[in-house]
Amino acid sequence: MATNGHHTRQPSISIRPAALRGHGGGNRGNPLPTEKSKDFKGTLKKLLAYLKPQYKGLIAVFLFTILGTIFSIIGPKVMGLAVDKLFEGVMGRINHLPDVHIDYRYVANILLILAGLYGLSALFSYIQAYMMAGISQRIIQRMRNDVSEKLHHLPLKFIDSKTHGEILSRVTNDIDTISSMFQQNLIQLTSSFFILIGITVMMLIISPLLSLVAFATLAISIIVASFITKRSQKYFVGQQRTLGQLNGYVEEFYGGYSVVEAFNYEKRAIGEFEKINSELYTVGWKAQFMSSIIFPLLNFVSNLTFVGICLLGGYMTAVGKISLGSVQAFLSYSRQFNHPVMQVASIVNVFQATFAAAERVFEILEEPEEIPDPIHPKFIEQPQGHVQFNRIKFRYEPNTPLIENISLEAKPGQIIAIVGPTGAGKTTLVNLLMRFYELDAGSITIDHINITEMTRKRLHLLFGMVLQDTWLFKGSIRDNIAYGKEDATDEEIVWASQMTLADNFIRTLPNGYQTIINEEGSNISQGQKQLLTIARAVLANPRILILDEATSSVDTRTEMMIQHAMNLLMKGRTSFVIAHRLSTIRDADCILVMNEGRIVEQGTHPELLMKNGFYARLYNSQFEL
Predict the structure, then answer these.
(1) Structure pTM?
(2) How far apart are CA 452 and CA 437, in angstroms?
(3) What are the backbone angles phi and psi of residue 392, rounded to the nearest 5°?
(4) Could you tell me how many helices (H) and strands (E) the chain has, helices first?
C-alpha cells in the first residue's frame, strides 16, 4: 500500500499486518547517523545492561584471562634463571674453573617448568575464548531478538522515514560490529590490561633503571597512538555513512532491475553506483591508511626501546649490577610491553566504531512505540462489518493538513469505492482504518466499537487485504496461500484456490502446490501472483476487505479472471476498493471521490455522472483519446 505523500509498500495481503510492516520503502537520500558516539556514557550503560545477566560467566572469563596472563608473564623470568645457569657454566669453562660446570639437569627442569607454564597459559586462554564465544553470542542473540521485537512494535511512520539499507545496516552490520567487540576486542583489551600490569611489575622487580627507559618510550607510543586516532576518526565516520548509502542504492537498483533495463538506465545506474562506491573507496582508504600507519610507528618506537635497553643492560651486566639472564628476561618483557600498547591503540578505534554502532542500535530500541493496546480491550464476537468514520482528521506533518473532517458510513456487505487523483488521501484513509497511523481527531468504529478500544491483533483479524503491490515470500505456493490462516488444511487451501480460479494454473506447474516461488516471485506471472493473494484472502475469510485494484498490468483474459475472483471475494463482505480503473466500480454501493484529503463527492456511479462534477471529469478522462 502506498501512503500518499509518504510512500510505503506493504504486503499484498495481511491478516496480521502488524507483523509485516518491515517491508517498507523510504527516501534513499536520508543520511545515516554519524559514526562517532554522541553519548559514550549512556551507550556504555546500556551495553552493560546486556552484560549484566552474563556476569557469572564474565567473571570466570576474566579469571581465566588473569591466570593465563600470569603464567605467560612468569615465563621470561623463569627462562632468565636458565640463561644465568648456562652463562655461569660457560664462563666457568672459559676461565677453567674446576668446580664450575653446566648443570644440564637444572636447565632441563627449567625447560619442563616453562613448558608447564606456557601449556597452562594456552589452556586458560582456550577456556576463556570458548566461554566468551558463548557469552557474546547469547548477548547478541538477545539484542537481535530485542531489535526484531521492537521493529514489530514501531509505528509505520518510523518505517516510512528510513530506507531498507539503513534499517538492514543497523540490524546486521551494526550488531555484527558489537558482536566482534564482545567476542574479540573485549577480551583482548582485558588481556592487554593485565599483561601491562604484570609486565610492569616484573620489569620493576628486575631493574627500575631499565624500566624508566621502557616507560619513557611508552609515553611516546601513547602520544603517537592518540595523534593518529584523532585524525582517522573522521574518515571512519564517512566510511560508515557512505556504506549505508551504498547498501540502500544496491537494494533499490536490484529490486527494480527489470525497470532499469527496460528504460536503458544501466549506464546511469552504474555511474551512480560508481560515484557512491568511489566515495566509499576514498574515505575507506584514508580510514584504513590512517589506522594502519600506527603499527609501523609503534614498531619504530619499540625498536628504539630495544636498542636503548640492550646498550644500558649490557653496560649494567658488564659492571655486575645485573645478571645476563635478567637482561634477557627484561628484553623479552620490553618486547611484550609494546605489544599490548599497540593492541590497545588498535582496539580504541574499534571501540569508537562499536559504541557508534551500539548507539545506532539503541536508537531503534528507544524509538517511541505504537500506542499500547487497551488493558481491558473489547472484541467483536460476531463481526458484521459496519464501519463508520466520524469527523476524522489526520496529518503527517504538524503544519500540513491531509485528512480534514471526513465522515462516512459503510454498512455491512456494502462496497465502498474510493477514487481520486494521486495524493488525494485514498490510501491514507485505509491506513487509518487499519490503525497503521493514529488519528489526530475524530474516531473510527467497527460495529459501533472504537478501533482504539480493540487490540491491534483483533482489529487486523477482521481485515483481508489484496493490494496492487503483490507480496509473496520465498516458499511453496501452498505455504503462501496458507499464510492467510493458521493451521489451514490442504483441502481448505485447494478450495480457496478453486474459488478464485487459481487452482487451474497451479496444477499446470511441475510441482503443483509444492512449486517454490523464488525470492523475487519472477517464476510466475503478475496475474498469477494476484490470484494467489486473493486465494489467501478467501482462505482467511475476513469480514472486511481492503482491495487496491491491480489489473492494469495483466492481459484481458487474466484481468477478467482476477475481477471474477475479486467479485467472489467481496460477496457478502464490507469492502473498501481503492479504484484506479473507474469502469470497474460502477456497481459499487457508494463511491467516495477524494481530493486534497477531503471527500468532494459521494454517491452511486449514475448519481455522480448526473452531477457532472469532479467524478464525471475523472471518469470521462479515462475514455478520451
Answers:
(1) 0.61
(2) 11
(3) -80, 145
(4) 21, 12
